[in-house]
Amino acid sequence: xxxxxxxxxxxxxxxxxxxxxxxxxxxxxxxxxxxxxxxxxxxxxxxxxxxxxxxxxxxxxxxxxxxxxxxxxxxxxxxxxxxxxxxxxxxxxxxxxxxxxxxxxxxxxxxxxxxxxxxxxxxxxxxxxxxxxxxxxxxxxxxxxxxxxxxxxxxxxxxxxxxxxxxxxxxxxxxxxxxxxxxxxxxxxxxxxxxxxxxxxxxxxxxxxxxxxxxxxxxxxxxxxxxxxxxxxxxxxxxxxxxxxxxxxxxxxxxx
Length: 256
Known about the structure:
50% helix; alpha+beta; two-stranded antiparallel sheet; 7 strands; 5-stranded mixed sheet; single chain
């Protein structure tokens, strides 16, 4: 109903304003736990978080004020825009807090035994691709379906999300191809490759620095790869870039 829609939109706007007020305290908390971030990095963090929030706030207020005049098509378009903005803020805030809270030198207990192929298949099948270009997921495994890894479920899930979020964001279409291979030491190696931005040899380590934007990357926090590597380290894994891959970016997780 009209009243219910107005109430929901008002609540969305209220939540957005609350998050907006939390941005500076979150950044301050991050800075206090690290060596700090440069002024331009802080400004970029504020812009990444605040721009979609302010758009969300403005859109909800406009929708409430003009509820009877907005067509269903316009309302659906607004819903799509609000959803995209809310998703961007949610991911950026979550990554910033998780990165700040994770100590890469404090190894995490690995108490979960997970079927590797099922883990990857389930994750890639449910991952919400946000790229405006046509992107498809492909998974090819060279290990048997009964192969398992001993890991921490929540942490490995966060690693996968950070990797695929990056791959989706910087893909120029085509496929995000995932492969899995067994190593002679009994561990497994996961490779995730896209068609898009190629990271050069001399940029391969810089790409894992927090708030780093490489090549033609111009938007975002620049935290996905830094977070993925930090989380990989707490599980005893190694995350690197295969610079011999020339069609885009290829991330390699070893030691699983």
